[in-house]
């Protein structure tokens, strides 16, 4: 089984890079950004920039976006426009402009994938998932090496801290745990369990309590439905790790008494409530936390630099004009994910990927990270996958009475399906 899986994976790798030259070049840039986002911010940014430039060139050559009617396109575009509008309205426009310059490239990635990714290219879909899982395993291994050598007190990524790695692993664990029945992704249940176990151990040793919680919620959602025994195995692994490692014990006890260990978030929220009514429509400007936060003297961490909550961050940065479309993006993605689940056939790769994507987006919605420079690459990729799966979903057949004689052959049977219907 392992040999056939390896042969099929190599075949997927080769075929995924076949196609029209410009399309392949964009695909290479996208995979480079996703494969390197947890290792090198410079390479990830450069890859996203190249993908955006290639896509722009394709548009100038007359290539059209086949999914321009996606329900995600309007709220996403309104959110981007609101972030842009917040720059001249900022209390410090120069700071906000610098912040937007780092964001704009990652906003473009959603449009690139929406217009170029084909949900029926199963070779690319499998390659994308395997690439992400491989990146998670390698990042975990590197983190453990640094941790064992005493270089870091937690597992961290090579390009960012424990928060970025923790959420990255939490999202990948949630996605991977839902794919245990996919023999085209994992050669056997044992390999799948090992992959999930590695991602889980890496997540635990980032010592980030919030990411533990969202991964546990995702695991429970999947485990109670179809992976009860494996859920028990992973729970045992987690319990043994907590018992054996004293820092894990301390963080777990802090999780049980979270109200006493807020890490300064109570001060942040008190400061936010002092300002929340001052500029409700436009906010104070992108990344202006240092300019407006009123309680620095009370903050236990004097180096704090953000509102530490994505929804609060969006509101304080750019007000309701950005927060409403931001929430609408998540609501639209949830709606489309539900429609995808109902439309794609049971057992299809697309339906399995849709489930994994919904779990990943759920982790982002609960834990944040959607505005993070690196993690936003993964977040926008998941949004785009939801949109292209929705656009390519099989359409229900029309009743026979509505088809009419034009849709029947000589034998009286329908000989055509509506566009997008799977044969």
Draw up the topology in text.
Layout: H1 2-16, H2 21-36, H3 41-60, H4 73-85, H5 93-116, H6 122-148, H7 162-177, H8 189-204, H9 209-226, H10 228-244, H11 246-256, H12 265-275, H13 289-292, H14 310-343, H15 349-367, H16 375-391, H17 400-403
Short structural description:
This protein is mainly alpha-helical and 423 residues long. It has 17 helices and no strands.
List the defining traits of the structure above:
single chain, 423 residues, mainly alpha, 17 helices, disordered C terminus
Describe the structure.
This protein has 423 residues and is an all-alpha fold. The chain has one domain (2-391). The chain is 67% helix and 0% strand. It contains 17 helices and no strands. The protein has helices at 2-16, 21-36, 41-60, 73-85, 93-116, 122-148, 162-177, 189-204, 209-226, 228-244, 246-256, 265-275, 289-292, 310-343, 349-367, 375-391, 400-403. The protein is globular.
